[in-house]
Amino acid sequence: MDKLCKNVEVLARSTGEYLKNEQAKLNKKDIELKGARDYVTYIDKEAEKILVKGLKELFPVAGFLTEEETVDYVETEYTWIIDPLDGTTNYIHGDTTYAVSVALRHKQEIVLGVVYDPITDQMYSATTPGNAKQNNKILDVSTHNTINNAYLGCGIPYVLDTKGELVLQNAMKHFRSCSFRIKGAAAIEICYVAAGVTDAYFHSGLSAWDVAAGTFILKCAGGKSTDFSGGNNYLFGRELVASNGFIHNEIMDHIIEVS
């Protein structure tokens, strides 16, 4: 698995270079709108094709679950869960926080995660607990254990339902006691928690390809991920609280409050 992970890192890096090069050439006419504030371009689709082709060569027996659906989903023992361009809205506006996200799922468990930020050249990866890395440096979550003075990441979903709106309202109550940041790319923001940059990250309305790699990397770095009810349905449940573990319960009690 470690050898496979190294090969996936190479593929993610080359895909990231493609994204970085194409961003400068992007025209407004190339942008499609899938829904409110939900964009896609030919670049997303082409990047996904690059990933799918490369991953098929690396591990032919695995199937795919992809955001842009350039390949059909077929249930298999192993499944690649990929987001070729996490942070498309940032990307099409010329902003710099976006990433390539690749996870491998074996039956019901993620066993490999790679997230690559081509702008900062930061490669996050993991295959087993204790070996989560950022550019070959072992990752450790922060040890901050209270919401006071916490450094928190969050996101605003494309469709803000009642539950998501309540979470944001709860967060507003803590604007004076802690710091909030919205980067607009969930995969990277989860990796920031794994790297100890932020203490926690929460978001509703996410899809499996947004969180599969990042939450596995966080787990391997010693962190914790749950859905808004405190359960494990964060991969497909469209709700995520990702934290260093120490601050998790306080985030659930004071910001999520929707169980």
Detailed description of the structure:
There is one protein chain. The protein is α+β, with helices and mostly antiparallel strands. The protein starts with a helix and ends with a helix. It has helices at residues 2-23, 42-58, 88-92, 162-172, 186-194, 208-220, 248-256; strands at residues 31-35, 38-41, 63-66, 78-86, 99-106, 109-117, 122-126, 133-134, 137-138, 151-154, 179-181, 200-204, 224-226, 239-243. α1 packs antiparallel against α2. The chain is built from seven helices and 14 strands. The chain folds into two domains: 2-138, 2-Layer Sandwich (Fructose-1,6-Bisphosphatase, Chain A, domain 1); 151-256, D-Maltodextrin-Binding Protein, domain 2 (3-Layer(aba) Sandwich), CATH 3.40.190. The relative contact order is 0.14. The strands form three sheets. The protein has a seven-stranded mixed beta sheet, with helices on both faces. It has a five-stranded mixed beta sheet with strand order 11-10-12-14-13, sandwiched between helices.
Distance between the termini: 37 Å
User: How much of the polypeptide forms β-strand, as a percent range?
Assistant: 25-35%
- Spatial strand arrangement across the major sheet: 3-4-5-6-7-8-9
Helix content: 25-40%
Overall CATH architecture of the largest domain? 2-Layer Sandwich
Number of domains: 2
Kindly report the average pLDDT value: 93
Please identify the top-level CATH class of the largest domain.
Alpha Beta
The name of the CATH topology of the largest domain is: Fructose-1,6-Bisphosphatase, Chain A, domain 1
Rg? 17 Å
